[in-house]
Design goal:
Elements: H1 2-36, H2 43-65, H3 80-115, H4 127-157
Helix pairs in contact: 1-2, 1-4, 2-4, 3-4
């Protein structure tokens, strides 16, 4: 579990760093545009690509911290045992869906690389950003698998 925590923490800190760098880029772009009428070319496109890191690398850390949305209006009235079973089923279904998303995003990464798709203004290949998305899904997959195992062990310990 410590390794999973470390991986998710590194991915989350990388997402936070991407937010910080985006902030610096946007502030510099606005300042240069207003003060010198010389905006940073491609700043919008760079920001768009950095959003991939922010969103996808933050998935695992959010899941590990329990920060994803959870609506339990009805489930909270069920007995504790039923709540645990429902949680396990939801985590398992989520695990399957995240595995599918990881696989599909990996396939998209390979396709984008093979086709040589580039960013319009800055001319940077797009496949590294697709690879970041795949990595983010992979981290979430590992985190959800560890949460699933942890919930099973906690249920067996009671």
């Amino acid at each position: 579990m410590k390794i999973v925590d470390c991986i998710a923490r590194i991915a989350g800190l990388t997402a936070a760093l991407a937010i910080f760098l985006m902030m610096l880029l946007i502030v510099a772009d606005v300042f240069l545009r207003a003060a010198l009428s010389k905006p940073i070319l491609g700043a919008t496109e760079i920001t768009e690509q950095m959003m991939v890191a922010v969103v996808f690398l933050g998935f695992g850390w959010s899941a590990l911290q329990g920060k994803h949305l959870k609506v339990d209006l009805i489930v909270s009235y069920y007995p504790q045992v039923v709540q645990r079973v429902i949680d396990l089923v939801i985590i398992f279904v989520g695990l399957v869906l995240v595995a599918v998303m990881s696989w599909l995003t990996f396939g998209a990464t390979l396709t984008v690389q093979r086709l040589g798709i580039m960013c319009s203004y800055i001319g940077v290949p797009k496949y590294p950003f697709y690879a970041l998305a795949t990595l983010g899904w992979g981290v979430l997959l590992v985190v959800m698998a560890s949460l699933f195992v942890k919930n099973i062990k906690d249920g067996a310990a009671r």
